[in-house]
Amino acid sequence: MASVTSLTASVHQRLADALSAALPEAGSADPLLRRSDRADFQANGILALAKKAKANPRDLATQVVARVESGEVIKDIEVSGPGFLNITITDQAITRNLAARYEDGERLGVPLAEHPGTTVIDYAQPNVAKEMHVGHLRSAVIGDAVVQILEFTGENVVRRHHIGDWGTQFGMLIQYLIEHPHELDHKGAAEVSGEEAMSNLNRLYKAARTLFDSDEEFKTRARRRVVDLQAGEPETLAMWQKFVDESKIYFYSVFDKLDLEIRDPDVVGESGYNDMLDETCRLLEESGVAVRSDGALCVFFDDVKGPDGNPVPLIVKKSDGGYGYAATDLSAIRDRVFNLKANSLIYVVDARQSLHFKMVFETARRAGWLNDDVQAQQLAFGTVLGKDGKPFKTREGETIRLVDLLDEAIDRATAVVREKAEKVGLSEQEIEENGRYVGIGAVKYADLSTSAVRDYKFDLDQMVSLNGDTSVYLQYAYARIRSIFGKAGDRTPLAHPELELAPAERALGLHLDRFGRRWTRSPPSTPRTSWRRTCTNWRRSTRRSTTSARSSSRRRRRRSRRTASSCATSPPARSTRAWPSSASGRPSASDGPRPLEEHRYRQLWHHCRMSREPVLCRVRQRSRLCGLPIWAPAGCQWPPLQSRAWRHFPIRCRSWRPTRADARSGSNSRPGD
């Protein structure tokens, strides 16, 4: 397989060479090339380079233009604004690029990733004992498309279907069945499976939910049943497992209708992380990332506030001892990062959960589970609406079942195929088969052709129409084009570089070229099994001030304090005594320099400096992650209490503030030390 150099890479290389020739001291600088509305591409990197070189950016841009080797790729390049470069590609370059990709075969000239990593993508997350509705469509379709694209680039993709198979709802459902055995013939339920079983369970779920919301005593009994489920009580656990198994049969039937590959080992629900919940909460609390608030274990954020202006926390563990959704999601992150060795995590989840995942990802970063080498992102998507632009529901106000929508799409597409089948003489079996392909393809295309972040109207009439931006129209146009090629035979070449491209053809060619760019991932800077051990002092960032001699004096004093310490990742030679020295084994004010978990110290200090949020952290002698003793910088004392550096120093109690007496005496003690 011979890879085809993308137009983006070709233009990028030409600009980089010209930039190095015009400004040798810049070396192999990045011209920062991107797509533009003013031209095919725009380069913005000259502005920053000119600032470093103390040169006029427009003059530097003019010199770069004079040194660019346009060849047969670049048609026009002009300087715009203060120093931007607008680049236009020739029609011949676009045509030849597409022709070369066509001749390459299956991979279309797309190279494999240079440093493939492991990506865990979380998508298609239905709930056990509940029927799938139209809201589950987007996560499944978008997630499957991302999986196929990443696998095509050579990335190692691990699929995860985080089904909802745990929680209060199961205690509610099981308790209702125990109290109302006449509502379900258990023998009959054991014999059925798939859609029929799910319809029965869904009916029971609605009845149990109504009773749960109206009867406080039933609510209490249902919660006790959840405790039995968590404790592994045999009868309760057996009934729960039956619900899970029958629900999976239903899930697989729906996904199979969507032509999506769902494998049983990839289905890891909430229950799969139960054994990790306690340890996750313990690590968060010991590291100071989570704190106790009214008996609950919470993580606070300065930028997340409720209507009353008070911070809204991420509840990891409830005051009654139960675990929140955050504990499960954080445990899943730990499993995917440390067990699956993931480099990136992608969550294809409804945009309405964006705040939750923003808080979860930030918590994982504070805890050190996510860093520069391991990134997590949410691929949020909008809501599916009805023709009237309102939430897609039945006339009775209920959510429309996904399987009903798919069946209706197939029926309408089959009717369209049957109208055209008379001309080509298709059999009834072929009509039904083509109708299924066209119907499901229409639903998936309507989803993927809409921006993921936008809401879109689910209009089956438009989806299967032969007019407009629909998959049916594209398939029909493709069939006609193939017919023309079939009649032409080998008499004419497929590519005609001498012909001028229409604007739509240029846009399509450049868009296809974007997929042809080499997809790279930088190799990790540190081994996954180790942690960075570069020591970071407690100094805080300062703001520049040129208007006050007094502030300048404060900066000089702070600078002198910073240079008084040097970093060490082994026990410092100048340490006055080993920590801890007290009989209780807890640090005291007289212990002098204290050893720290260096990576915890650095992460918490950075978090405190950025968010200005005090963090409670119990300092330990040995790292709980790697077991090695990590010491404080040699000569590094607690920040002086009279300085404002305490505002940014993380190793302190949330409720403690230095008093005037402390400042006069220079005491470094804290409550609890």
From TrEMBL:
Q: Is Disulfide bond one of the keywords?
A: no
Which residues fall in a compositionally biased region of kind Polar residues? 578-587
Basic residues compositional bias: what residue ranges?
552-562
Q: Name one GO biological process term.
A: arginyl-tRNA aminoacylation
Coiled-coil parts of chain: none
Keywords of this protein's UniProt record, alphabetized? Aminoacyl-tRNA synthetase, ATP-binding, Cytoplasm, Ligase, Nucleotide-binding, Protein biosynthesis
Record EC number: 6.1.1.19
Boundaries of every Arginyl tRNA synthetase N-terminal domain copy: 9-89
Q: By its UniProt entry, which SMART domains does this protein fall under?
A: Arg_tRNA_synt_N (SM01016)
- Top-level division of the source organism's lineage: Bacteria
Q: Where is the composition biased (Low complexity)?
A: 521-551
Which coarse location class describes where this protein primarily resides? cytoplasm
Where is this protein localized, as stated in its record? Cytoplasm
> Reaction catalysed by this chain?
tRNA(Arg) + L-arginine + ATP = L-arginyl-tRNA(Arg) + AMP + diphosphate
Single GO MF descriptor: ATP binding
Q: List the residue ranges of the region (Disordered).
A: 517-595
The EC category is ligase
A GO term from the CC aspect: cytoplasm
Q: Please state which protein family the record places this protein in.
A: Belongs to the class-I aminoacyl-tRNA synthetase family.
- Summary of subunit composition and partner proteins: Monomer.
Report the protein name in the record. Answer: Arginine--tRNA ligase
- Species the sequence originates in: Streptomyces avermitilis
Q: Which gene encodes it?
A: argS
